[in-house]
Amino acid sequence: MVEHHHSPLLVVELKVDLDCDGCIKKILKAIKKMEDIETYDLDTQLNKVTITGNVTTEEVIKVLQKIRKPATNWEEDGAH
């Protein structure tokens, strides 16, 4: 079942260490390579990455793991 024309957009919120400019550039580069992404936002204060698009949390985490940036689901992390 592959339908690409009108998939609902998903919001993926992840907790990722955004502690250095190099890391941030790497993360942005990796995110931009992903397909089906509409918008993305990095909040360096909260160490939070928000991505909107036709992607799942698992897909984004896998991409970040490839560049050795451990990411966790924002909700699961117990961050309130």
UniProtKB/TrEMBL annotation:
Bilayer topology: Peripheral membrane protein
Source domain of life: Eukaryota
SUPFAM superfamilies: HMA, heavy metal-associated domain
InterPro entries: HMA_dom, HMA_dom_sf
Keywords for the protein's UniProt record, in alphabetical order: Metal-binding
HMA domain segment(s): 9-72
Main location: membrane
Coiled-coil ranges from the UniProt annotation: none
One BP annotation, GO: plant-type hypersensitive response
GO cellular component terms, A-Z: membrane
UniProt KW Metal-binding keyword: yes
Pfam families per the UniProt record, alphabetical: HMA
GO MF annotations, alphabetized: metal ion binding
Compartment(s): Membrane
Protein name: HMA domain-containing protein
Lineage of producing organism: Eukaryota, Viridiplantae, Streptophyta, Embryophyta, Tracheophyta
